[in-house]
């Protein structure tokens, strides 16, 4: 599968005052429906020692939708429950495939991975990105009547500071607010990709940075891979001559893959004080507030603390409105992690109450950011 493009250079694009595409005077948002967030749980495979000692395993999959925390006598129901018998492809198909396909049709989407460090969270998120990459470019190859722009950016949020993972210089990005565009990340790098190999290479660079230069803080930071997807009907010669007819409609969307920091408590500083990432604390508060509002069938934007954390500011649009989200929680079956497993399942239960609107983002004219890529 190949994709032709007027611009073939892979040089990153540095922009000033870039933001998530939003509706404006040039476009509109078409509301589809409101539904609850998809929530699933994946159980990390038990170790050899745990397999030898059944009593050391405290959580198990009862059915495709039910998980049991054995030591606490609790059974919970979610959209999907996965264990060691579930492949990455099965997890992707259930958790993320519909979101990725919706993003190709103009609907914003976001996939979160939440859980303690060592529970398989990062492994699972990387697998989701890999499967999504195949899906996206297969979709482009099959969509013979449409042409696409795909751009990728990568962020790290550590100690309430945002860093550009695709920049050669590690310096904080300014997080700005615009009344029309929403949250703006000033100076964020966007890399245009025209094939699955280019996308995989770009993501691999991010993973290498995380595993080497910033390995010490990687479990304490939030990693976000963001895809900007734009497509329109392929331009064809008009009946009045060789010049193509104007394109009637362009769809655009943002697809986020968010690997959240480890949810466990850890020792901070030299005082031995137990703490947890404050962005996650605020993230949990936002989820609880949105869940409470959905349960009461009302909106409560004024009471949702989005601005209390850089993470929730950056993801506000996806969390509270125009997006199709999924939360994939990962847990360890080990008895030593029983309390963390309980906390993760409690978070998953709160997330399952949140309802978001699914919208299609339409533009009357194409964005001039990049020439469009069209499949051969």
3D architecture notes:
The longest helix is centred in the middle third of the chain and has 22 residues, at 121-142. α2 packs across α4. The strands form four sheets. This protein has a 15-stranded mixed beta sheet that branches. A three-stranded antiparallel beta sheet has the order 6-7-8, covered by helices on one side. A two-stranded antiparallel sheet has the order 1-22. Mean pLDDT is 78; it is low at 1-26, 267-274 and 364-376. The radius of gyration is 21 Å and the shape is globular. The termini are close together. With 376 residues, it is of the alpha+beta class. The chain has ten helices and 22 strands. β6 and β7 form a beta hairpin.
